[in-house]
Amino acid sequence: MKILMTLILLLVVAILTNATEWRPCGSGSDYRAHRFIPQGWKGADFRSACVKHDKHYREQNVTKVQADKIFLQDLLTQSKYSRRPRQAERVARFMYRVVRRYGRY
Hints:
- By secondary structure, the protein is mainly alpha-helical.
- 64% of the residues lie in helices and 4% in strands.
- It has a two-stranded antiparallel ribbon.
């Protein structure tokens, strides 16, 4: 029984520590929020754009406005690979507006 509980605990810890790696889009302050943030849209994968955007915010090697514009361009580029590119573009633009308004640099 102790072994089973230890394995379950290790699994939970592994999931919690890696939650932002497999779902990078979303606020870095709360891993639970990542469940509600789109990581892509019908074939478009936004995760690389989110990782790059977080890197810009973390390193602050460009301004917030520049980082957000690069983010939008990356999202729009990925939207082209969606089965529904127009819907993916709308999702991308919505994500951009949210970052512009609430993103913390």
